[in-house]
Amino acid sequence: MLLLVLAYLGGVLTIVSPCILPVLPFVFARADRPFLRNGLPLLVGMAVTFAAVATLAAVGGGWIAQANQAGRWIAIALVGVFGLTLLFPRLAEHLTRPLVELGNRLSGVASNAEQDGRGSIGPSLLLGVATGLLWAPCAGPILGLVLTGAALRGASVGTTLLLVAYAAGAATSLAAALLIGGKLFAAMKRSLGAGEWVRRGLGVAMLAGVGAIALGLDTGVLTQVSTIATGGLEQSLVDRFAPRGNAMHGNAPADANGPAMMAANGNANGGDVAGGSGPSMMAAGDAMRAAANHGDAGNGNAMMAAGDAMRAAANHGGAGNGNAMMAAGDAMRAAVNGASPSADNGNAMMSAATQSARQNAAMLRVSAPALPVEGDAPSLAGATEWLNSPPLTNASLRGKVVLVDFWTYSCINCLRTLPYVKAWARKYRNDGLVVIGVHAPEFAFERDIGNVKKATHDLGVTYPVAIDNGYSIWRAFNNEYWPAHYFIDAQGRVRYHHFGEGDYVQSERAIQQLLVEAGHPDAAQVPLGIDGPAASGAQAAADNADMRSPETYVGYARAENFSSPGGQLHDREHDYAAPAQPGLDDWGLAGAWSVAEQQATLAKPGGRIVYRFHARDLHLVLGPGKNGAPVRFRVTIDGTAPGASHGADVNADGVGTVTGQRLYQLIRQSGPIVDHTFSIEFLDPGVQAFAFTFG
């Protein structure tokens, strides 16, 4: 219920947002007519159309985006005609004559019915539908919370209701403005000759609105102004009223700014986070990010986004009495039941006693209280495909300790946890641990199974990977993060979870404890930590003490701090100029680029991206040109080649090549970290740039 109220309030706030300006003339064009038969149908048509299109766009594929784009152009033409009819009465008479004649034949309604206030609501409803197609409200925290939640959780009545509530809020504020404007319009009409000029003025305003939308100003310049105008107020509403949830027991809403916004280091189970206050996970929600921002991240404490419900489950779960003695008892029974048929009862009892002693000693070695039961493990059904293994089920995994790792292959936080996950899979395989990577894509190219197969091979991932392109497993776990680790015991119950990087020792001790409970006491003797070569390249641990730059998206859906003059233009080629003196975390484009929701695509050779950053490492998610054509590039820091500060994917001269859709490490510094201006120039066209990350 709180989310519905929040969505409604977010819609009401659109009246003070500059993004609403282009559609105001469409609304006020009928301010001089009866509200119930003109203004109200227009607003209903606008609200219903927006909610329907937004629902489909959030949960549908690329076809709905293309269909909506075509519909927008049809609507632009339709509203343009409405504007022209206000300017030229004879044109209006000519266009409406066939409709009037048809209406007379069907219903015998007189041609002057519109003047008598009994006209059809059809024209107003049609104008409302067109306005709904054209209306692109600024994606602030509240609308973003609704849209990303829809994308991650799938289509539902709740999703549509939230979008309807948002649209209803906007319609309410516009209705108030329309009623006030109608009275003002009537007063002006009473003045001699004023009515005709006001009507023509509205026609000009409608055509200006059409021009603004056709040029992309409603989703470009005005969006940036609106972020300043209403974003803070919306965020305060989210912070105060949005329900906090967690991945297993709550409903923390998600944000349009990301499934993939960076959240502060956190462990929802309450452990301290290694590495201090740096980013450690990609959170799917703005409410999550808000919780992180308002928490005491400097102390490296638990991520509060996991919510009170998770903490309650941890503190009051049904496993409070599960201790080492219970585990030893289970092991005793297992030893007795599993004794060799040739052994006599005495040997069986001695074997059980020995096993019990070993298990008690093992439980003392892991030296941790019994892990609480957080609930039964959700289903693993719904994967598009399985790699490295036939499909696995909860039933087939009973008796095994299971680690479920939600990841995506271009996520920097996932890559940095990967050395530990691979080490655990190797070290405890013979003790009964099964690691399952659930690959849930963030970007469109991560849905390509061929790309995922190549990434798992290149990254050395040999354990089972479930391709979760439909987010079926993601939704079953009610997950919100990349990476997210869920630890499941031999009885099929979730006993521990961890979101993001860090706390590797605590996570490994949880594995050992669950294995000991399952009758594998030797697991407690395995040395903690990575058992192979130290992680390198993008998989190396971040330098959180010096990492001040945030993850930054290039596509307009989640772009922030874009500083090229004129702002971003959406879905069209444009010649950009780099910012002359970017501030810290400002970035920009130079050259001929086309910016889409998720990425920017270079149309001509010589295009650049610049970024003023403060971090040891700089990464950029890139993809090659059409048909996988390689794209050469050259990197500089403060105008010179990186030298010893080059990343794993470039040489000392800053030269590299984009050969696949993945994350590229471009800068890796040593020594004191200061602010630098990074620049990457692409020598070939077609490259796609998605997101910056830092380490």
Automatic annotation (TrEMBL):
Coiled coil: none annotated. Gene3D superfamilies: Galactose-binding domain-like (2.60.120.260), Glutaredoxin (3.40.30.10). The keyword Transmembrane applies. Keywords: Membrane, Transmembrane, Transmembrane helix. Residues 364-516 form the Thioredoxin domain. The keyword Protein transport does not apply. The chain crosses the membrane at residues 6-28, 40-64, 70-88, 125-151, 163-185. SUPFAM superfamilies: Thioredoxin-like. One of its GO terms (molecular function) is oxidoreductase activity. It comes from the Bacteria. This is AhpC/TSA family protein. It comes from Burkholderia gladioli (Pseudomonas marginata).
